[in-house]
């Protein structure tokens, strides 16, 4: 099973989601069965490490993002991943624009797995530290929901 998180710059929200889901998969004993990656719609930050504010906020919860580097969404991602999960509706619209015909992957909003009223992870880039905490809270809840779904799909697949 392969999961790709998508935001605008791939330096704040989607690398945070990558780190948090990885940690939760590890705790759930599923890290061998699920591959996680993240990317950005835009190319401005390609090759850069996550925003230091995102890294520090994640570190306060025991999640280390320092090895991650930004990359841009590629056409091949629609073939490689089972889930392409957007942080907000603008990211989702960009995914739908680039999605090839007959792409079997699940392309949707990440927060649909959170069971919250919020549907979007707000862009924290131009805000303060509190925005990064809110991003983590939303991502934490959605990751738990996603793991439940993945667990069920893996169990169904098992002979
Ligand atoms: P992200 O945040 O999409 O969560 O990585 C942003 C990072 C950079 C920019 C916008 C959003 N930017 O405009 O450079």
Notes on the structure:
- By secondary structure, this protein is of the alpha/beta class.
- The protein has a single domain (2-157), classed as Response regulator (Rossmann fold, 3-Layer(aba) Sandwich), CATH 3.40.50.
- Helix content is 42%, strand content 13%.
- The protein contains five helices and four strands.
- It has a four-stranded parallel sheet with strand order 2-1-3-4.
- Residues 7-13, 44, 123, 125 line the site of 4-nitrophenyl phosphate.
- It comes from Billgrantia montanilacus.
- Belongs to the low molecular weight phosphotyrosine protein phosphatase family.
- Keywords: Hydrolase, Protein phosphatase.
Cofactors, ions and other ligands in the entry:
4-nitrophenyl phosphate
User: How large is the radius of gyration?
Assistant: 15 Å
CATH topology: Rossmann fold
User: How are the strands of the largest sheet arranged?
Assistant: 2-1-3-4
Strand content: 5-15%
The appropriate CATH architecture is: 3-Layer(aba) Sandwich
| Helix residue percentage | 40-55%
**Euclidean distance between termini CA atoms:** 16 Å
Q: Can you count the beta strands?
A: 4
| CATH class category label | Alpha Beta
> Into how many domains do the coordinates divide?
1
Give the class from helix and strand content and strand pairing. Answer: alpha/beta
- List the uncertain runs: none
Number of helices: 5
Write the CATH homologous superfamily: Response regulator
Describe the global form: globular
The string of secondary-structure elements, in order, is EHEHHEHEH
Indicate the mean pLDDT.
96
Biggest pleated sheet = 4 strands, parallel
């Amino acid at each position: 099973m392969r999961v790709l998180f998508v935001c605008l710059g791939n330096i704040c929200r989607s690398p945070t989601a990558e780190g948090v889901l990885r940690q939760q998969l590890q705790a759930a004993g599923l890290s061998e069965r699920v591959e996680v990656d993240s990317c950005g719609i835009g190319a401005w930050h390609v090759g850069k490490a996550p925003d230091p504010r995102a890294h520090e906020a994640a570190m306060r919860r025991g999640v280390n993002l320092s090895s991650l580097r930004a990359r841009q969404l590629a056409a091949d991602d629609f073939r490689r991943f089972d889930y392409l999960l957007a942080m907000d509706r603008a990211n989702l619209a960009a995914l739908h624009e680039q999605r090839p015909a007959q792409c079997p992957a699940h392309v949707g909003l990440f927060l649909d797995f959170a069971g919250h009223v919020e549907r979007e992870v707000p862009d924290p880039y131009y805000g303060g530290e509190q925005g990064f905490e809110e991003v983590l809270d939303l991502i934490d809840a959605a990751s738990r929901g996603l793991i439940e779904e993945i667990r069920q799909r893996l169990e169904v697949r098992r002979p």
